[in-house]
Design a protein that fits this description.
By secondary structure, the protein is an alpha/beta fold. The chain contains 6 helices and 7 strands.
């Protein structure tokens, strides 16, 4: 019997990315962090936990993560401040709030700090689909990002190759 994909897209295709997402969950309540880690790992998402803002900022190799999931209220700082810091340091990694702070002002503060989504506790069933969607979007938007002069360097190499094949007397222009 074929299992149904629990995260279908609007077109009916899987929302799961090719690789298993790896996220950093910043939550000062250790029980909440452990519960969410279990739920996400069952869904196919690897989770590392940081129990507060300081632990998150000191966490090594943050560039390894595909997404940051953070609580707005942390015992040792503001989730909005952490979000802004993470967005400055890692602009290509999405940040999602998963919090019980539900006022319009708190939501606005979180989104203005650079969050890609703002999810409310206890609706944990929304977290995994949001992670998959944002990781897929980030992967597809970064797929064709080229470093400066990459195209020019490739054109130069192609021109040298054409010159080797056709000879120096018949140069071939590759770009207008």
């Amino acid at each position: 019997m074929k299992r149904r994909d629990p995260f279908p897209s609007a077109e009916g295709e899987s929302m799961k990315p090719l690789k298993r997402p790896h996220i950093l969950y910043v939550e000062d309540n250790e029980d909440c962090c452990q519960m969410m880690s279990i739920l996400l790992e069952i869904s196919g998402i690897d989770v590392a936990c940081a129990h507060g803002m300081q632990m998150a900022t000191e966490f090594p190799n943050k560039q390894q993560f595909d997404l940051f999931l953070i609580d707005l209220r942390l015992k040792d700082g503001s989730g909005s401040d952490l979000c802004a810091k993470l967005r400055r340091e890692f602009p290509n990694i999405p940040v999602v709030f998963y919090t019980g702070s539900a006022t319009p002002q708190q939501r606005q503060s979180g989104m203005l700090s650079g969050a890609a989504a703002y999810l409310l506790k206890p609706y944990s069933e929304l977290v995994a689909p949001t992670v998959f969607r944002l990781v897929n979007e980030a992967a597809s938007s970064n797929a064709f990002d080229l470093k400066p002069n990459t195209l020019r360097k490739l054109e130069d190499k192609a021109a040298k190759l054409v010159q080797i094949i056709t000879g120096p007397e018949r140069p071939l222009a590759l770009s207008p």
